[in-house]
Amino acid sequence: MKIQPFAVEQWMNAYETRCRYNLAETCVESLTLDQLLGLAGKRASILDELRPLKLTYGAIQGSDRLRDAVAALYDTRSRHDVMIAHGAIGANSLVYQALVEAGDRVVAIVPNYQQHYSIPESLGAHVDKLRLREEDAFMPDLDALRRLVIPGTKLISLSNPNNPTGSLLERAQLEQVAAIADAVGAYVVCDEVYRGTNQSGDELTASIADLYARGISTGSMSKAFSLAGLRLGWLVAPAEVLKAAEIHRDYNTISVGILDDHLAAIALEHADQILARSRSVVRTNLAAVDHWVRSEPAVQYVKPRAGTTTLLRYDAPIASRDFCVRLLESTGVLFTPGSALDMEGYVRLGYANNLRAIETGLEQVSAFLRSFGRA
Description:
By secondary structure, the protein is α/β, with parallel strands linked by helices. The protein folds into 2 domains: 7-32 and 273-369, Alpha-Beta Complex (Aspartate Aminotransferase, domain 1), CATH 3.90.1150.10; 55-270, Type I PLP-dependent aspartate aminotransferase-like (Major domain) (Aspartate Aminotransferase, domain 2, 3-Layer(aba) Sandwich). It has helices at 7-15, 33-39, 46-50, 64-71, 87-99, 115-122, 142-148, 171-182, 208-211, 239-252, 258-268, 271-295, 320-331, 355-370; strands at 21-22, 82-85, 105-110, 126-131, 153-159, 187-191, 215-220, 233-236, 299-300, 309-314, 333-334, 336-337, 346-350. The protein has a 7-stranded mixed beta sheet, sandwiched between helices. It has a 4-stranded antiparallel beta sheet with strand order 9-10-13-12. A two-stranded parallel sheet has the order 1-11. It is globular and about 60 Å long. 49% of the residues are buried.
């Protein structure tokens, strides 16, 4: 199978360890094990839980305890609708391996995480892309989507909240996407790893898995739950999708680590506390980013409504990759170039980590922008 290089991941692999100010990171600042155990009230008892664990494969689809905790994030789902995977990246891969064949038609809302269009293309599918535009606040044109989704379309793919723009589809808009899919019997695959990081309100955004019979939600412990080191995610999907995904899972996963399963269950049983922390981080940090953007004449953006990232449109006569390499080399600040997201003329900023590093890094960016002769 031939597949396009994963541009974002290759960029991060090449440069992430070489920066002083990592403004490309997409996870909410990671919890330490001590912080997780503290909020769960388990600092004194965790070894008593772990010592008896036999370090075998564990439950193949994920423990009942963990799948119950995942299902609790949804309004209408149970453990029987949940499959545990190696991160959302593993869950997404399983979905496309299970559903997409050569000749199938896929509609992808872009920009998006590259898996959602490059994997279907590598499997021989015809992928039509609906591009989000800055002038629409990076919200999809649903009339244009309706024109693309024709009889024979296998699935629609999107992320919500969107990576990298931070735009957000509310329940009514997701219901319209579901209706468009339902008209032709298509699935909707929604990457929901940033669900729970809204800039307003304390409720979880509606999930496509709750709104549509052929809706498929993928999620993980990495972004909103600040535990990327567990390498654990999930898919919530109709029974026929889970059955098909299970066949592929046997070839590439078997089970997740038993310690990862256990710690993820502890975390999700305290999801409200973790998500409250995440919302505090993204709201505080975005306020600082917004203040900087408003004072920086060489940068414009659409303020995100959710998630941990945003696209910055910069005013400088240089391609985004060259911009980011020169910025890193001269200031130590790391952005993700828009070219890695098929969004030339932009850079992606991740704003959910250390606030002081973000503020200092953005000061360095302003100085760098002034080197192009602008005020």
